[in-house]
Write a structure and sequence with these properties.
By secondary structure, the protein is α+β, with helices and mostly antiparallel strands. Helix content is 60%, strand content 8%. It contains 14 helices and 6 strands. Helix 6 packs antiparallel against helix 7. The longest helix is centred in the N-terminal third of the chain and has 43 residues. It starts with 13 loop residues before the first helix and ends in a 7-residue tail after the last helix.
Length: 352
């Protein structure tokens, strides 16, 4: 943009300053520098580009130069001071705008996830962040070894990767409770899949859970809670999958819906294992490994660093104590369900 295309108010007093510097050789005063910073802030608030602003100042310098008889050194020093002050003001305004945008986004996310705003107002604010709440949305939640805050390195890295792939279309990235969140339309699973990939890498192997698509503003909350519950289940079940989907784990909430019934099943089925010489935990670990690998004895023995003979002995001991043969396909379902319940209830570490 040429100088003439830039409103004169952003150059106010600049030619006079150069003339005085040229005549006296002085440096710019504190008030003059502050006036440039203020003009830089105003230009940023007006949406003018920094390159445009600097270009206009250089053009104004070139125009005023023939009329300044002083030394080039004093004039160039003043130009450097003035442009540096303009850029500092511009950057100050941008930092403030970023902080305000982050605060607005955090407030919107809080209202969205905790229902602290009427639906009409919420839908209006959502459009500002690229969401149309009339559609179904799904939420992915990523957590790592550290807590992540808005504007920090990891969230910025993930956001840049997402924008590079999808632009800024129809998704919202933010942080909540030290975790990274991605809200996306429910019919665009590729967005959440890419988020999961990027977040897993950026968080040094962190885990990502993806809730099911749900309709309306309440659907975002529901999907978010599903993702959080999936992360909690993964911890309790000691799952090491980097990406977990709530849709693939629906059986676990069903199993824990009646906690007392599950506790009765665990105690009634696995309780006799506590009478073993080393307690229930080694035999419970044996069952966990055996069921996790599809009841393949050789693979379960490898995971437990046992010989197949030692594993077989443990399975026979479990049969003796519980009365249920874990190698019998017709009867091991009850035993398997009880093992899952024990992991969910953290038994035998916690009493039932």
């Amino acid at each position: 943009m040429a100088e003439s295309a830039l409103p004169e108010r952003y150059l106010d007093g600049y030619a006079r300053m150069l003339a005085e510097v040229s005549a006296t050789g002085r440096r710019l005063t504190r008030d003059e520098l502050e006036s440039r910073r203020v003009l830089g802030e105003r230009a940023a608030d007006a949406g003018l580009g920094l390159r445009t602003l600097v270009g206009a100042y250089l053009a104004a310098t070139r125009t005023a130069w023939p009329h300044t008889p002083g030394t080039a050194d004093s004039v160039l020093a003043a130009v450097e001071q003035a442009i540096d002050a303009v850029a500092a003001g511009y950057e100050r305004a941008q930092r403030l705008a970023v902080r305000q945008e982050e605060a607005a986004r955090r407030e919107f996310i809080d209202d969205l996830l905790y229902g602290r705003s009427d639906l009409g107002r919420l839908a209006e604010r959502a459009e500002r962040f690229g969401l149309r709440l009339s559609r179904a949305h799904a939420v992915a939640v990523a957590e790592g070894s550290a807590a992540y805050e808005e504007g920090a390195g990891v969230p910025r890295q993930v956001e840049q990767a997402m924008i590079a792939r999808f632009g800024d279309r129809d998704f919202l990235l933010t942080t909540k409770g030290g975790r990274l969140l991605c809200i996306a339309p429910g019919d665009q699973d590729e967005i959440l899949a890419h988020f999961a990939k990027q977040a897993h890498a950026a968080t040094d192997g962190g885990r990502v859970a993806i809730g099911r698509p749900q309709p309306g503003p309440g659907g975002v909350v529901h999907s978010y809670e599903e993702a959080l519950n999936t992360l909690e289940l993964a911890d309790r079940l000691h799952l090491d999958d980097p990406v977990l989907r709530a849709a693939d784990m629906l059986v676990y909430p069903v199993l824990t819906r009646d906690r007392q019934a599950m506790a009765d099943l665990v105690e009634g089925t696995l309780g006799p294992l506590t009478t073993a010489r080393n307690g229930a935990q080694p035999l419970l670990d044996t069952l966990t490994a055996y069921f996790d690998c599809g009841c393949v004895a050789a693979e379960a023995a490898r995971r437990l660093s046992l010989s197949v003979r030692a594993l077989t002995y443990r399975l026979e001991r479990i049969h003796q104590l519980t009365g249920v043969d874990p190698t019998d396909p017709a009867r091991r379902y009850t035993l398997h369900t009880a093992v899952i319940g024990a992991r969910l209830l953290d038994w035998p570490a916690k009493s039932l």
